[in-house]
Amino acid sequence: MSLPHAILTALLEKPSSGLELTRRFDKSIGFFWPATHQQIYRELGRLEEAALIRALPGPPARGRRREYEVLDAGRAALRDWVAASEDPRPVREPLMLRLRAAAVVGSEGLAEELRRHRQLHAERLAAYRDIEARDFPDPAGAPEGVRLQHAILAAGIGMEEFWIGWLTGVLGTLGED
Amino acid sequence: MSLPHAILTALLEKPSSGLELTRRFDKSIGFFWPATHQQIYRELGRLEEAALIRALPGPPARGRRREYEVLDAGRAALRDWVAASEDPRPVREPLMLRLRAAAVVGSEGLAEELRRHRQLHAERLAAYRDIEARDFPDPAGAPEGVRLQHAILAAGIGMEEFWIGWLTGVLGTLGED
DNA sequence: CTCGGTTTTGCACTCAGTTGCAAAAGGTGC
DNA sequence: GCACCTTTTGCAACTGAGTGCAAAACCGAG
Question: Which PANTHER family match (chains A, B) (predicted)?
């Protein structure tokens, strides 16, 4: 139930076509909820059918650009969702399973993979830091909306830092740092 | 592709029936890869068909307990998987989307939900700490297998601590801590 | 204007995870 | 032994996400 609300949010920030949404997802919302263009088009169709968004006028046709905007019902649905209650989704971390498997059958070949993951996390961390420097020069003094957006980014930064530190620790445990 | 390997690992630690596996998942592997009994039975069937595990002798019958053990091919497959390369799965964090939605339509009702999440994370953290105190009195001096198992738990502890701290920070941002 | 490449939209299929439910065996009280 | 409850196994249908691919419109070169 998250993708439709992510799309509503993005459309409220700026009415867009499916392809624009896809591009914007790739550089912001997608960090915490990736989506392909196929998913997005499907969801736009459902949202339109549910009368939460509407396409700006023009003859509907395949291959023809369609710009969407959020209707009042959509805004209301989003507001409800913000206040709704939903449990955190279960953690699913294949790397933990692999460590556990390694504890049983031996850790042959594992260290290299851990280093690769550390590298990937480091790259993502650098990307987040860039965005932070560019878009949030003074988060503390900003209005609530901006402070919330910064909090999201801060979560990403914190997570990546955590994984990098943890991976380094495990590599130490394997005598391979 | 993770569940079958999780099951192989669990069966190597101790041959079990489907129901036993389900129970063991609930208190250990399931923290990082939850699975229902239906999933587990389905996967046991596939693993048996692939000749990676076998049921201990006895007439196969529905409703009748079947104990499984890992075959050499299964152990080999697991070893390969430990050394395999697999990208971290994309992050999917609905709470981040809700913050972002809140930045657009207002944060009405959000703080309560954040407190609830903080509470849930605190409970899980406490559970992890209990396990740590009970099962890992001296992780540093233990053999590699045990150190790896402790690293898994340490990841869980670190994650929960991180979320608790971050949620507290956001609540502060909302002027609601 | 028409041909070919690009953009934009969208369908169809697969796969993993979730939920609901039922069938077969085993155990317990009468 | 039989009536009933519990344990254990398993099927079936659904949902959300991922992948491949194609159709319609658009656009620039000649």
Answer: TRANSCRIPTIONAL REGULATOR YQJI, TRANSCRIPTIONAL REGULATORY PROTEIN
Tens digits of residue pLDDT in B21-79: 999 999 999 999 999 999 999 999 999 999 999 998 777 777 788 999 999 999 999 99
Binary contact (A104, B173; C-beta < 8 A):
no
Cβ burial of B116 (10 Å; 0-12, 13-18, 19+) is middle
Q: DSSP labels for A89-115? A: PPP--HHHHHHHHHHHH--TTHHHHHH
Residues 117-156 of B with CB under 8 A from A: 117, 120-121, 144-149, 151-152, 154-156
Alpha helices of chain B — where are they, by DSSP H? 2-13, 18-27, 37-49, 72-83, 94-105, 110-135, 144-173
| Residue A88 DSSP one-character state | P
Closest chain A residue to the Cα of B161, Cα to Cα: A162
User: Residue written as tokens 């042959």?
Assistant: A108
The strand C neighbours among B residues 57-76, by Cβ under 7 Å, are 61-65
Distance CA B96, CA B83 (A): 33
How many other CB atoms are found less than 10 A from the CB of residue B17? 18
Say if residues A88 and B95 touch (Cβ distance below 8 Å). yes
